Amino acid sequence: MAITDILSAKDIESALSSCQADDSFNYKSFFSTVGLSGKTPDQIKKVFGILDQDKSGFIEEEELQLFLKNFSSSARVLTSTETKAFLAAGDTDGDGKIGVEEFQSLVKA
What we know:
The chain is mainly α.
């Protein structure tokens, strides 16, 4: 499954263009612009499955750093500051990674 099966290419392009500069990524505005905030829990779970590159059932810090590249191979990697802030926002149980339920909550925040 491709991310464009769930999200429109136009929305992805718009969301990526809003965070091209280092340290400009804001997960809330990104999720809103890309249209993920309005998706069903099942659709959000499918996006989580795409983001979970190693299929561990979690999105770890290394995968978060490459978050934008899941939407476009030409997108930048997140900075260390952005990655740590993103992880801190999503990791509600403190295990150092984001599970599917945590991701669904983060998207709907």
